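Q: Can someone sanity-check these two? First one:
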Amino acid sequence: MPVESDVADVIVSNCVLNLVPNKRAVFSEIYRVLKPGGHFSISDIVLTGELPDKIKSAAEMYAGCVASAINKDEYLKFIYQTGFKNIVIQKDKAIVVPDDILKNYLTDGEIEEYKSRETIIRSITVYAEKPRMD
């Protein structure tokens, strides 16, 4: 980010980071920009399994923040590894893709298989703090 280090008290993001290819670098930049004791609140789309390739490659799914989402555990690992503390998942909600959208990409059999698994696409809101220097 084109700002100095340790300048922000709060950083808020809503469904944007999943579009960035290098999520680890994003969390490093958030850490750098936050003042010690500052925090972030980020809402984003994550996955808890593998999406069918036909969905991953669909432009509509990319625009809907789904195709570029990463595994939830990997997403949270980036936050922990960056050094954030007091990490709290404030929301974790299933995202159900309607059948009329799935039909654009999957056969009836593939839709049945997709729907038979636990919901893969999730919307989460994560809160975390940059440790104070005291």
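And here is the second, same format, sequence then tokens:
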Amino acid sequence: MRELRPRHVAVAGLGLTVFEARDPGRAVDDAIARKAPAPYGAVLWDAAVDVAAALAGRDLRGRTVLELGCGCGLCGIVAALRGADVCCTDVDDDVFPAVARAAAEAGVADRVRTARFDLCGADPLPPADIVVLADVLYEPLLAGAAARRTLAALARGSDVVVGDPDRAGRHDFLRLLHEAGIAARFAGRVAWLTPGAESR
């Protein structure tokens, strides 16, 4: 388990605390030594803050939110504060103590659960009204997996919110969606896709 440090974050007027790895470099070294997934969730990324702000602007009471590659869990926690029932997932089990601690700090531990889920795996996408992917387009493999999961979510009627600071995989992600007939566009670092409509 990683040693954690608090990080205070302001999101749309909300003052929140998330927990990052105290030593991200060590988290990387440990993951390499164990041949474990890359520890992207050891730190909070800026695109997650932008997605959290997009979620904070909506009334999510009665909705379910699935966060893929949740990392520190900021997006899921903000969704829970706006009334959603949330499942934060990641392939890296070491992020879950940080998510649970941040959810407890925010007073939404009863609305946030965690589960292991591999974005690149073959398991079907768990059901949710809104699917969140914040800062997962690191490279072509992940971008392809994110596009596949986005298309599956849209096909079943879920909204999809994607955050990305223009990483290497964004072009591949957009190309794959375009080839499937989805006209996705980012406004800054966030794309909000709705079934049957262009992204907002």
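A (reply): Looked at the second one. The longest helix spans residues 140-155. The first strand starts at residue 4 and ends at 11.
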